[in-house]
Automatic annotation (TrEMBL):
Keywords: Hydrolase. This is Nicotinamidase-related amidase. Transmembrane segments: none annotated. Pfam families: Isochorismatase (PF00857). SUPFAM superfamilies: Isochorismatase-like hydrolases.
């Protein structure tokens, strides 16, 4: 029997090689976000809320999530290893690979969320102004309530991060809570 969940936490592209134009700047903006994501993960896991890691496959078409993480650790920026050490998926977390920006594009995410009866998505990860943004827009189009964690995302500059959060809030009414605001709340569905 399926355990229905009101919410799911999507962690987007946190395993990254940062080997692209602007990658070093993104890595440096992402570094202080890693401990915030650790808190977020502990909170959602503690309440039994589904945690879904959706990550770029970096053209490693023959690899699973563990292979992609190993690749980013091996060839990536030092922040790649920090993220892998701190944020490694655990048993019970769902792992999906994607080949484009949105976590919805040609992945099993829509079927998974339907199966879990999810109504609300909480998004965190990188880059705020690219993959998080496109995932948030697609989630909205699919009819989900969406919150983007304002201190749980990073873009190449703080200004780019602010612009995307303002845009999502102003144009689509998406909430942009902080990690502290989220972890201080008791989920409505309770612990299972």
């Amino acid at each position: 029997m399926v355990q229905p969940h009101r919410q799911a936490l999507l962690i987007i592209d946190v395993f990254n090689d940062f080997r692209f134009e602007g990658g070093v700047a993104l890595a440096e903006q992402f570094r202080p976000v890693i401990p915030m994501l650790v808190l977020l993960l502990e909170h959602f896991r503690g309440w039994g809320v589904p945690v879904v890691f959706v990550n770029d496959n970096f053209d490693c078409w023959h690899e699973d999530m563990h292979g992609v993480i190993a690749y980013t650790r091996e060839v990536g920026h030092p922040v790649s290893r920090e993220a892998a050490d701190a944020l490694m998926p655990r048993q019970g977390d769902v792992r999906l690979l994607k080949s484009r920006h949105s976590a919805f594009y040609r992945t099993q995410l829509p079927a998974l969320l339907e199966h879990l009866l999810v109504e609300e998505l909480v998004l965190a990860g990188i880059a705020g102004d690219a993959c998080v943004l496109t995932t948030a827009l697609d989630a909205h189009v699919h009819g989900y309530k969406v919150a983007v964690v304002r201190d749980g995302i990073a873009s190449q500059t703080p200004a780019r991060n602010r612009r995307v959060l303002e845009h999502l809030h102003e144009t689509l009414g998406m909430k942009t809570p902080s990690v502290e605001e989220l972890v201080s709340r008791v989920p409505r569905e309770g612990r299972r």
